[in-house]
Amino acid sequence: MTFRDLNHLMALPLLALIYYSYCPFTSNASIIDFQNLVQTDLDLSHQFTFDGQNDQERLEDKVGEANLTTRPFGSGTANDIEYAKEGYDETSNAISTSRGPGNDFAQGAGLHNASVSLSDQISFEVIFQPNSDEISGGAFNLGYILNTRVNNDRGYFLVQGNAPLPSTGQQLSSTIGDGYAERNQNLILSQIEIGHWYFVTGSYVINRDTNITTFTNYIADLTNGDTILRKVGPFSNNGGPYPTGGSPLGIGGRWDAGESFPGQIDEVNLYDAEKEEVNFQQHLDSITGGKTPFEINKITHDLNSNTTTIEWNSISGKAYAVDASFDMIEWNELDDGVIGEKDLTSFTDTESSESETIKFYRVREIEE
Length: 368
Known about the structure:
The structure is a single chain. By secondary structure, this protein is mostly beta strands. It is about 5% helix and about 45% strand. The chain is built from 3 helices and 22 strands. It has a 15-stranded antiparallel sheet that branches. A hairpin with an 8-residue loop joins strand 13 (about 210-220) and strand 14. The longest helix has 12 residues, at about 275-290. The protein starts with a strand and ends with a strand. The model is unreliable at about 10-25 (pLDDT under 50).
């Protein structure tokens, strides 16, 4: 367990509060900034923003020639696809793919392109929001977000669900190889949250000498305020070399038909190269504005209640500890289980005394 400390002084001479404060760091960032940054990458092969003046434009590949068409199945129709949905922010729109009740192939609609060219190295990025935290009722219980298929080799880059089958339909996973099995799967997230926007990426490299594909995924929960990617992998499969050659492409649905994903998809990017974590992190920074400095930005004292409130920049779900001291040598822990809120978190010290003339505070970020 490691700690990152923040020290701050609160002085109370004659009950007059003296403290240092400043305006927290802010930065402009948006999906449109992300789109523009992605456009500068020479390895970008396909970009789907789902933005446009009409439905045809919204299905266009903004970089390559892999324009999308709707692919309904079962009792589903093309009208089940919804356009111009609210995206992650107001600078972009999303598209909503459909999955109806019943089994995996009963009703729904996704997006399709007959052929994209895949190389020995490929990377992807997706921004999406699930409408369901569980997919059930079928033989497989999977929802395909981004996928390809070369003969019997699976390129299921991002799926809601996991192996072994039937899935519980609650996870995010990535499968590369000759079968939908745990030996070919990287489990990205064990429990998806309905209504959350996620940024998920991955890179894949084929070793032709060993017939092994190694891939690494990264994820950030944008709704939770994540500004740092969480790395999952690298994972080496046992299912042969993939991707290779031409392949049908499915977005929000299987590469052919069925098993669609119920939710919104804001952005999809494909790259003909293995991208590094630093590249994906830069792209995340363009969406979120980067990581806000871990700093105390305000201390206020209430004379009536004789309490002091400390406020600092925080990450949702992160655990923090707050300490106090009169000499910055000996510290008294006030609380070691403050759970961070998105952007800002506060703690109120009720142990102040009217006899105190000076008091220091420290906030520690606890990392397991």
